[in-house]
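ok so i was messing around last nite and threw this chain in just to see what happens. nothing serious, just curious
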Amino acid sequence: MMSTITAPAATAGARIHVPVWAFLAMALGLFASYVVLQENGLLVNSWMAVHEFFHDGRHALGFPCH
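result:
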C-alpha cells in the first residue's frame, strides 16, 4: 500500500521572520563588493589608496576601473 505525503497548504499572507542581522550582513556585503570592485574615488576622494590596493585584482577579475 502506498501512502501519499502532501505539503501543507500555503496560507495567504504568511510571514517569514528574517533577523535584522541578516539585513545588516547583506548591506555590509554589498558595500564591501562596491569598494572592492568599483570604488574609484566617487564615494570619498581620499580613497585612491583603496583603489590602488584592489587595482590588479579588479583587472584579473575582468572589472574595468578606469
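not much to say yet. The helical segments are 20-37, 48-61.
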